[in-house]
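Lab notebook, bench 4. We co-purified these components, and the gel suggests they stay together. Before we commit to crystallization screens, I want a quick structural picture of the whole thing.
Request: model the full complex, all chains together.
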Amino acid sequence: MWLLLLVAALLLSGCAGTADTRETLTFWAMGREGDAVGRLIPAFEREHPEIRVRLQTLPWAGAHQKLLTAFVGGSSPDLCQLGNTWIPELAEVGALTPLSARVRSSASVEPGDYFPGIWDTNIIGGALYGVPWYVDTRLLFYRRDLLKRAGFDHPPRTWAEWARQLRAVKATQGPGNYALLLPLNEFEPLVTLGLQQPAPLLRDGGRYGGFESPGFKKALGFYGEIFGNHWAPLVSTTEIATVTDFARGYFTFFISGPWYIAELEHGMPEELQNAWATAPMPGPDGPGASIAGGSSLVIFRASHHLRAAWQLIEFLSNPTVQRKFYRLTGDLPPRRTSWKNSILANDPYALAFGEQLERAKPVPKVPEWQHIAGEISVVGERLAHGDLTVDRAARELDRRADAILSKRRWVLSREKRN
Amino acid sequence: MSKGYAAWLFVLPALIVLFLFFLLPVLAGFALSLTDFDLYALADIHNLRFTGLHNYLILLHRPLFWAALGHTLYFVAAGVPLSITASLGTALLLNSKLAWCKSFFRTALFAPVVTTLVAVALIWRYLFNTRHGLINYLFSLPGIHPVNWLGDPRWAMPTIILFAVWKNFGYNMVIFLAGLQTIPEELYEAARMDGASAFSQFRHITLPLLKPTLLLVVILTMSGYFQLFSEPYVITEGGPLQSTVSVLYLMYRDAFKWWELGLASAEAFVLFLLMFGVTAVFLRLVRRGGER
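Here is the predicted assembly.
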């Protein structure tokens, strides 16, 4: 009883004590982006004097767990930066508020201006749950000098051409070095090869694995061939210092995202600064697709400040603000307008990304995707070691994916009945 | 007030704490392991199904669980004896009257225990790097072929065991050192007068008198080693080819990465039963040995 009174007294005094009448918006952002966005917010608060933004920066490592526990515990923020592969999961648990109507009536957020594959990652079951904030995708980084020594003056466009180049580079670089780095603990390279095929990775509305399709088997075959011919070393990221080994010529190609542009500009020795370049992913028969990655801004359903939160999203989606954000972080903006008339348009390293983003494709939008992706890297590793044939690897992947998706099938059939 | 009543009153606070923070979580974990609690159940509690022992059945049919169990047992079976030998050996050396700079060595050997695991794990990763690592460089001097320490499924676990032993032996060493110092010097003097060799002094004086300490250390080390997690988490992320996935690592992944809390609870419970069983068997063996 005493405790209750005490709590009531505290609450009352708390209410009476607030002199600041501004609406307070809680905004969670992660890592580097969190640090950078703090420098953009004062401009927003000047534009909207009635809103105060309370920014909290989370480290990426614990962010996923923290978001889910915050949602379960009823302490979620108003809006949040969300890696776009996490959207299906949080949309599934009902944590996010749909934004379709707000976008329709918005004067500044134009869906057509965004890279289509990136925009698509935010649409779950026909409803929009996020607005892309910055984008990434993966493509080829390569050593121009080493490729030239092997007899090629341009990066590959097709798998066949790529294979010829890998073979030639491996031959000129000798037995201690390799042509390509495909870290065994990463699923992204193999998934990228799979996304370049026509068949979807999961079939039947994300109920079953689609890994036994002829297309994915082709991707597995190419992946296996790369390791079978020793064009790529059997290593994982924990054993590699990517920039150092790239500079030493341990590998000539690697596949990664835009964050490596800055890493290489700082980390490569002076004499090699002009020796590396970026290029769009080669595909089975011509330029290929890659994974649509990056982060979106989402609003939580529990928020009481929907309008203010949307205003902050509109502010951060403004091309001028996005250009500033790019200069602060190096994160690529998701709108084509933000690319025009900016330093990006003349950056040779970023240009390849601009081209690749037009061909970016979302990974399957089911909450189980991260788990399935983990199995893809495990099975891919066994294929690379030669423990599995392509057919057995494909069957194994389908078996594992089907098991992971069994609860989803049950939930979907239950929803249909009700 | 009867005596029994008073006694219960004194024990009550401890019992309440034990109930709240040990028994209740164990029971809740067991209850959770009988369901398929996951992300869908988090969204809508109607998506929760009572599945009985189905999770345990899944585990029995899951090769990765058996592999993880195997890796954990391998780690315990190889790591515990190694660790205790290293601790006892260094404690004996430090306790010897011939040793010089004792406090320096005591501190130096204890240092790994108090350093941050993540930081030293990263340094070990550099040391054991196949191409640029110091260890392979030293091996190359007498012409030994470079070993792929962390990239070869056969070598990754031994490397992890070596790391764990190095990181932890100092702790037990200090306990042994304390135990050794309680052994009265007169016993050794008497033994020496009777002409006992150094080895028989160790065998007939040191070991029997150190037995309670040894028992404590074995049980503590064993239960600690069963909970192998941080080392593979930081150094290998369970790889290569999942050769360093331990039961606890598997449980962490299932629970906090994939949110399969029902299945993860079953894994936790199996590990609990296993540790409980092994410790009980060990204690019984020791007791029987003592009666003889």
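The mean pLDDT of chain B is 91. Worth comparing against the SEC data before the next meeting. Residues 152 and 240 of chain B are 7 Å apart (CA to CA).
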